[in-house]
Amino acid sequence: KKLLLVSSDLIRAIVLGVLPCLLPVESFSIERLYLMVFVHAVASAVFGPALTAAIPSLVSRHEFTAANALLQTTTSIGIILGPALSGVGIATMSSQEVLCVNAVSYVISAACFVFVRFPRAATQPAGDGSLSGTFQEVLDGFHYVLRRQRVILMLIGAASMYTFSTSAFSTLFPVFGKKLLDLGPIEVGYLWSAFGVGLLLVSLGLVSLSAWSLPKRIQLMGMSSFVSGLALFGLVVTTNRLAAAALMVIIGMGAGTLTPVAWGVLQEIAPASLLGRVLAIYNLGAMTSAIAGMTIFGWVTQEFGERPSVFGIGVGLFLSAMVSIRVGRWVQVNWAEATAPAEGETPEVVMVTQPTSQSSASVS
User: Fold this and answer.
1) What's the total number of domains in the chain?
2) Does the residue 79 lie in any domain?
3) Tens digits of per-residue pLDDT, 138-156?
4) Residues with Cβ < 8 Å from 248, sequence gap 6 or more?
5) pTM across the whole model
6) Other CB atoms closer than 10 Å to residue 48's CB: what's the count?
């Protein structure tokens, strides 16, 4: 995991920092830009699951959700401060120089991971490294998700509906801010920072959530998506900028709930040997739906306008809420946890073969 984390950071530092510094501006083309973005996206796709899969080897089981929430605070701080810092940087330097400076953040991140010590007991034996062996490992991950642990497949469904909507909203937000609220670029940045404030607040609040039962945490995912959908509907009808900022805080709080909770659930359910693959499959479903959401709602915005698009995004969040609440109820009936283990042991989480109510009836 450490090798993946460090190498991903260094690759992103080279692609977005070193190359723009070394290459002259006139040599940039749209093809090179697409290639750089593609390589950066691949490195980021490796970094995310590797970082999340490393959490169980660093903290105890009851701290998974709290650790994920604390990781998300870095994202929220970036959303709050990033637009302001980039604006100041571009105003005082060129955009090329800003990218060069930004590469330092990836180098610092890689240096921090070098000093992280993973317990030897958490290290899994490596495979044979062959193409067939790698393919078999991928198949094992899909088999576990699709056949052995259906609750993960349900979580992927809820997360896919969530990213289908939220990715479209974040991508099209500058257009929504300009057309719906008549905002300029700086004001759009301020409003997006309000989203980051909501994300930060909920991330700090989730630190104490690990004590909740599994069904309650999953149902919280549904409630957060429902509240975000309501706030989006409010954004459609409001023309007051202060009210829009308050709604963006609420949307940020709703958007910041699902991912840390879902990651915590996956970290508790999946065995350590399969966790990286399970998270990669989870991210695959989320990213695929994100691409679909950006494409579909981009077309809706172009053909029908901004308000129908925002309304449709809100409907997507309502659907995500329905799926999450349904998953929470299903888990409440079908899921059982072993009794509390001795200190230092990992509690065992098992799936009962029949709903508990039916099992009780058959015993009686």
Assistant:
1) 1
2) yes
3) 788 888 887 777 788 888 8
4) 191, 192, 194, 195, 198, 231, 235
5) 0.74
6) 18
